[in-house]
Amino acid sequence: SPQVSFTLELEFSCSILLDRAEVTLQATSDSTEVTPQDNVVKLSVPIRYEPNLFLSSNTNLHRYEVHPLGTFTRSSSPEFTTTVKVQNLGCYPIQNITLHMALPALGHHRATIMSVTHVLAENATCVLQPPDEGTEVVPVPPEDLLHVER
């Protein structure tokens, strides 16, 4: 018996979201069929949409110099701004997104090298919290950083 193979390409609209695609295939012939119901097949395929999130960040200070132990002044400068943006490039709205950011704020002997002065949140809720008690902070001796730029 002859066989036919073909490919269906379906293009979905972002304005109407579907949970499944249904296709009915039917073959006919000029001969008399004993079991014509064998010539019909109904396919139902679930549709799953993937989120298309884009995460970007930008800062106005690309280099920060940490001074050797004992030479650091108590001023809290320079202040710099980092902007983090999460964009939804997909078809459908996404809810309850959580973004965790770990800021490298402690140096040798847990000395504070950076602190967040203020948070400006647009269309988001931001919560500042210290790391969990169980989080292990591995100290890096200053001599290990002598030949490292970053």
From TrEMBL:
One biological process term in Gene Ontology: cell-matrix adhesion
Coiled coil: none
Any single Gene Ontology cellular-component annotation: external side of plasma membrane
Molecular function via GO: integrin binding
Superkingdom assignment: Eukaryota
PANTHER family: INTEGRIN ALPHA, INTEGRIN ALPHA-10
UniProt-recorded name of the protein: ITA10 protein
Origin species: Catharus fuscescens
Gene: Itga10_1
